[in-house]
Amino acid sequence: MNQFKLPPVTDFHRIHPPQLDPPPRLLLGPGPSNAHPRVLQALGMRQVGHLDPYFLQVMEEIKELLRYAWQTGNSFTIPVSGTGSAAMEAAIANLVEPGDVILVGVNGYFGERLCEMASRYGGDVRRLEKAWGQVFSLTEIQEALETHRPAILALVHAETSTGAAQPLDGVGELCQSYDCLLLVDTVTSLGGVPLFVDAWGIDAAYSGSQKCLSCPPGIAPLTFNDRAMEKVLNRRTKVTSWYLDMTLVGQYWGQERVYHHTAPINMNYALREALRLVAEEGLSERWQRHQNNAELFWMGLADLGLECHVEHQHRLASLTTVRVPKGVDGAKVVRFLRSHYNIEIANGLGPLAGQVWRIGLMGFNSRVENVLLLLSALREALASVR
Amino acid sequence: MNQFKLPPVTDFHRIHPPQLDPPPRLLLGPGPSNAHPRVLQALGMRQVGHLDPYFLQVMEEIKELLRYAWQTGNSFTIPVSGTGSAAMEAAIANLVEPGDVILVGVNGYFGERLCEMASRYGGDVRRLEKAWGQVFSLTEIQEALETHRPAILALVHAETSTGAAQPLDGVGELCQSYDCLLLVDTVTSLGGVPLFVDAWGIDAAYSGSQKCLSCPPGIAPLTFNDRAMEKVLNRRTKVTSWYLDMTLVGQYWGQERVYHHTAPINMNYALREALRLVAEEGLSERWQRHQNNAELFWMGLADLGLECHVEHQHRLASLTTVRVPKGVDGAKVVRFLRSHYNIEIANGLGPLAGQVWRIGLMGFNSRVENVLLLLSALREALASVR
Known about the structure:
The structure is a homodimer. Chain A is an alpha/beta fold. Chain A has helices at residues 37-43, 53-70, 84-95, 109-120, 138-148, 171-177, 226-233, 246-253, 265-281, 283-303, 330-341, 368-385; strands at residues 26-27, 76-80, 101-106, 124-129, 152-156, 158-159, 164-165, 181-185, 204-206, 220-224, 319-323, 343-344, 346-347, 356-360. The first copy, chain A, contains twelve helices and 14 strands. Chain A has a seven-stranded mixed beta sheet with strand order 2-10-9-8-5-3-4, with helices on both faces. In chain A, strands 11-14-13 form a three-stranded antiparallel beta sheet, with helices on one face.
């Protein structure tokens, strides 16, 4: 086989684990949510090559369906070949040049992450801070823009760590008047709560697949408008990340079809199906369904004597933070729900660790029967651990 | 739903493409190869969360199975949440610090890519060059190490653009004597051709899922030995890429289980199944199967009057570059095979564009019936386009 002698093959590490048989979890945490059965079916379909005419057609359909979901006409609207964090990094890596002032709204875990990423890419990071669970007013945003005069303002529309929805109406206009790009994290809002990229003047946005789109994690939407693309195409420096350099990736997703990396074919199949379901249902109907089921859940929580961490008007329909009652071990409830009922919810992060549970009703999982089951299970869990 | 008035939802971009129905392609190009049916089945299985005890077990099994496939005991052996290019970038981003001299063997497209990535991360890139399709001798490598005294030597074990297999016996010892890390691209060799990470003294290696492992693209193995980890853990600077920072990712894949990003659950399911198939078959048997089918294919090519671009002793069993005969339009043959027989092969890249076809017999696709079919189809195609 080779001209030189090969070493012996060892059977260390040659294990024979059993066939995969995942437990039937109902994923009501902050994500992943359960994929729609049609999405799982699409995921397992036979492959074609990443330059196959059939796949090129799939790519075009995905771009178009993403535009509908985001309510944007942006030409550059693509899925990044990684998870939501990869799309977040793609946005930062391409939009931030060393020395750029970037103002980040930090009222939760993902605002912190934006700061960390922007700093690694050489950004001059300024923080606009607020307690976890609160949101920024237009006045606060304007004052911060006035003070910092940033090249980019980054806000988290739907903070997965707190369950708060940042109002965005008017922020885009403000940013334009300050000649600043508006970058928005829509990981937990896309396909679940009202979101208008163009009408709200958002210049760049990214999301994940495993939240309100009900597609498994591993592919992540990204959109840049012309203002954002102008910045990307006129960079003085190359993007440090080759994998996430959108001038290169864009040549594969654009008409040039230049090979960059092998697209994750099956994850793209799955995302297409997830987005097809969004287009079938219609955005208004889908948002209303999320809101209705969330309201039902919040009423049920009140009946159980439980309180939400975020005030009603800023609460995300897709993710609720519920305060852990005094004297209750929150982590014990999480384990109880998983071990007794195969239900996943999550503990709080950062300053909310031990203080809240994070409960998601996202995409396919936003169904009235899940609300009923979860409320019953929570009642049982609380009775058991108190 | 919100306290402010929402813009109207528009139905621009609300398309209704038909149900996914990919053509039944036989993927005999440079990758992706067809996934094994058991892998596609695993891919579509119901999800659990990325911190679910069941998934943590799956993660441990994947690490162990990867160690077997790579013949390594490396503790840090994980799948990166992206395609092979992401794992390549993870290796470069973590091992190269600004100013580090990195010597790259450039005898094909992926050597070029290594140079580009290393340069973006601040590496002082030195090129050891050879014509596409040739390999480096131990003497040439030693001379270059002597000249450049690099911190890292990067070689492509299996050049997907040329079909050449770089001999690695003795290179590890050389690198150790020059106090240099050996980084190896094993994208098109892992699971298909002989590869011994530990016995060959390889310090860091990465691969893809969609070649000889017969798993869809979207997840990519990476391994660092203790020498490589020592460099990573003693960096003077943070890794620019947060997504690919292995000190953070390692805390999720290690015992700490600290959340970093949401792992692509289903892609991990698929990789586990692909690696389980490798462990079932056995590496020696698998390598022999690849070699036998390649030899059969090469004999058949000779019968058709076709020549291989790489000399026999350095030919990859997983990927063959076949010279396009004089007077034949290579691209036309590629299209003919796809449109008439649903067979994918690929054109040459770079200096080999128009000169060769790239034909893969990888993983599940390395079967005698595929060799017979491909040879017949090639005969028909040549008769038709001449």
